[in-house]
Amino acid sequence: MAQQTNIPTTLYPEGAPLKRFIKKRLGRATLWSNLFMLATLVGIIALIALLYNIFNSAFGFVALQNKIDPTALVLQVQEEQLLAVPNVVASENDEELAAGIAADANAIGFFGYAYYQAHADQLKLLSVEGVAPAAATVEDGTYPLARPLFIYSTQKSLQTKPQVAEFVDFYLANVTNEISDVGYFPASSALLAAGAARLQEATVNANEGERSDTIVTTGSSTVYPLTVRMGEQFAAAGFTGVVTGESTGTKAGLAQLCTRGSEVDIANASRAITRVETEACRKAKVQPVELRIGSDAVALVVSRENAFLEAVTLEQLRQIFTTAGKWSDVNPDWPDQPIARFVPGIDSGTLDFFVEATFDGQLAALPKETLMTILTANVSSGLIRRFENDQPFAERSQEDIYQLVVERVIESQIVRSWTLRDSLLQRTEIEAEVAQIPNGELVFRNWLTADFVTSPQSSEPLQAGVRTALLGSLWVILITMLFALPVGVGAAVYLEEYAGNNWFNRLIETNINNLAGVPSIIYGMLGLAVFVRILEPLTSGRLWGVVDPTTANGRTVLSAGLTLGLLIMPVIIINAREAIRAVPNSLRQASYGLGATQWQTIWHHVLPTALPGILTGAILAISRAIGETAPLVVIGASTFIVMDPNSPFAKFTTLPIQIYQWTSRPQAEFRNLAAAAIVVLMVLLLTLNASAVILRNRYSIKEV
Amino acid sequence: MQGELKMASAQPIQKELEQTAPPPFNLKRRYRPGETVIQGFLFVCGAISILTTVGIIFVLGEESWLFFRNAEVSIVEFFTGIMWQPAILRFGIWPLVIATLTTSIMAMIVALPLGLMIAIYLSEYASPRIRKAVKPVLEVLAGVPTVVYGYFALTFMTPLLQQIIGKNVVEVYNNASAGIVIGILILPLVTSMSEDALAAVPQALRQAAYGLGATKLETAMRIVVPAALSGISAAFIIAVSRAVGETMVVAIAAGAGPRNFGSWGDALTDLAVFNPFKAGETMTGHIVRISGGDLSYGTLDYTSLFAIGMLLFLMTLGLNIVSHILVSRFREEYD
């Protein structure tokens, strides 16, 4: 009889419950697989965030504040040079200059076009770079020495003196009629309209001030005849007062306008007001109002008696007015006569304009002697003597002296810096903020330049570089490699080839595995106690008689290298062991079979075969050592050194330590420096790792 | 025919050989001193690692001994004290240890789940193409120096946390951002070790599970992970040990100055000590900060560092030994 066993039929669902059950499981499976994928995505996002953060800080806008405006400095120096050469006559009075040039066949000079026109019978106009001054060439800018003409008034004058406001209004309305007569070129109607609008703006709150009879003008000798003419016309139109005028030069005129309590109502100017002058106005609580009234061409003239000159180039002009003594120095076809130069004086806007247009205004492009002049003029003699003692100026290059000028004379300071993202997105706010800074300048700075890599450490963020740190890192790694590689590979060879399976060798193995997991800072403390303190005669170089006079203790490159060597040795040993283990035994057997000794087998067969694997592991260990910071801080890397390390017994700092120090500073510009240094470090590491990967891929194909 | 030829020519050769016979071979093994020297040198290389360990234990031990021998210091206070203030000679280790633990726990919260999930994804789900794409990312993450992570914590993670949680809750220097970034730092370690453990599980187990109708998730979570559990736990413990020993991230982002507290009662009631969003120096951060400044040999400050170092060394050594035991004793062996 068959036994009737009770098979439960409700254990496993069937039908509809089964479908639900499967659906639930599948649903859970998909959910979790998506979560796993999400986790991977989080890892990738973390890396992207890391890289983005670094690059964000490595570029960006920087607000610089200069103690002295470099362009103004260059201009001043070049003008002084121009006026200091022999055979030069300088005057603010253009009539004087015209007369002088007309009298001498070997003379040359320049002033506003109106003065040439007034003496056109005695003077000859030269074309510059092949272009002669005319209305057309001034308008479209092909004439190199075309420039705008302005009159400046103050808000106070316009508001409190109605006769000044009326005069300016008349001026703007009628200047175009008179200007060609005087000898200049008219401004476009758009510019005049803009001037009129500014006048309206300035006088909108005018209280009915006292009407007086005088309007005081001063300033540019170039605009002087025009203002005089407009004054006459104003009187002809019904003005009963007096328009006084002086020809002092643009610089003096604007300076007078911008003094507190100034009597000057209108300053003529043959160039735009500079930032420095605007600053001076702001300090004197004067608000200048700029009004464009026309254009001028600076005419380069020689006497009618001059037979050899028709056209000059800018390069020739440069020589004529500075270095050349005789005409034949510039062009051998020209006569062997000394050049007689007639130029406007130091206060003249015409001189400013000519120098700016003809000479290169870059501070960095100035020759060494000029930079030396700037340096000696602006820096105390004691400091100059100290520089001379450190390194004689004759030995320093032009770049060195330029750096000194930038550091000591210009004294650029960083006021604020922004990240790349902020720089791109908040451009207008940043520009508005920088406009508020006196003498401020907005520069887009790439913190990671070639200069950054080659400059030594400095406390000034603008000058700081990583050269000292980079060289320190390289020195330390060299010593680490020389120590750790032979010893590590030797230990691996011993453990794999020679060691028997006794308790001592097992102890060594366990020991190495444990050492690989010890935190790096413990190695630092070991290095501090042993290499820096106990072995001080060895590591400071006293034993060898080579002592760095500034250190005389064990905190040297040698200690650092040895400590890092101990740190990475377990890793090298473990990797080398794997590589040696991977060498097939048949190779060894074949070698023994041919009668080789153990060492011969190892040296000639095992090691060469295992070498790629050993090298890969070594490169990875070394890239880990390059990035190590904590042990070296404990050993005593220098916080601030400027001298590059030049021996194993030198003080040192490394790239990661430099990054650590810069990150710890509160100012934002040091974060930017840290970011740039991080990029340098990562590039170094990436190169190393890439070479390890290439090595591994190349040699793994050749495996037997 | 050829045989005959040979026989015919053998005789004259044999005569020649007998006439010009070389001396008998010396088959004794030649003594090579070079081999012994080299073996000795290699043994010394191997023994240097022992010297390193001996050196670590000796140095840490001696300076700690000097520290505890000092009249101002009591070993009881060191292990039970709650204020670390060398200026007034209070050497209680707990503020530093609590900060270390807080940071490490935050790191674990980030790294362990993420790492394990990524490892499962890579070993069970991902196609070879995806694996080839993700592996380099993990390798790059593993190769980034810790200073860079510190910079990342200070300039990215802290502002991010401040944005999410609020500036008044999250201080500029805090343990949370340091902890999260340490988690990202050890993520590749957890992933690679877990993945190795998962890959060691033979395919046969997985096939059997699929054969019984299990989904990928069930196979992974109920068959593979339990089989690889020893390796995964070893990975976790190594990760904890690494997080405890991490220095630069906390030195940069976690602040300077131990978070001393008044009493254990206070600590356990208002939990301010355990707040990860405030600054709190860890053991490693403290060592780096003090050694970065002026430090003269033999002073109490100097030896106190070694006492902290000894504690740190013992902690990480203990963790490493535990993980080793887990792997060796509980590893599943398959044929």
Question: What features would you describe in this structure?
Answer:
The complex is a heterodimer of chains A (704) and B (335). In chain A, 58% of the residues lie in helices and 12% in strands. With 704 residues, chain A is of the alpha/beta class. Among the domains of chain A are: 86-128 and 300-359, no CATH class; 136-297, D-Maltodextrin-Binding Protein, domain 2; 471-652, Orthogonal Bundle (MetI-like fold), CATH 1.10.3720. Chain A is elongated, with a radius of gyration of 40 Å. The model of chain A has no long low-confidence stretch (mean pLDDT 84). Chain B has helices at residues 2-19, 33-69, 75-80, 94-125, 128-143, 146-165, 175-199, 203-211, 216-227, 229-245, 248-253, 264-270, 283-292, 300-330; strands at 84-85, 90-91. The model of chain B has no long low-confidence stretch (mean pLDDT 87).
Radius of gyration of chain B: 31 Å
| The CATH homology group name of one domain in chain A | MetI-like
User: CATH topology of one domain in chain A, anyone?
Assistant: MetI-like fold
Q: How far from one another are the termini of chain B?
A: 60 Å
Order of helices and strands of chain B: HHHEEHHHHHHHHHHH
- The rough form of chain B would be described as flat
Structural class by helix and strand composition of chain A: alpha/beta
Mean pLDDT figure of chain A: 84
> Which class of secondary structure composition applies to the elements of chain B?
mainly alpha
Fraction of helical residues of chain B? over 70%
What is the total tally of β strands of chain B?
2
Mean pLDDT of chain B: 87
Shape of chain A: elongated
Strand line-up of the largest beta sheet of chain B: 1-2
The biggest beta sheet of chain A, please? 10 strands, mixed
Beta fraction of the residues of chain A?
5-15%
Ranges of chain A where pLDDT stays below 50 over 5 or more residues in a row are none
Quick one: how many beta strands of chain A? 15
The portion of residues assigned to helices of chain A is 55-70%
The number of helical elements of chain B comes to 14
Distance between the termini of chain A: 69 Å
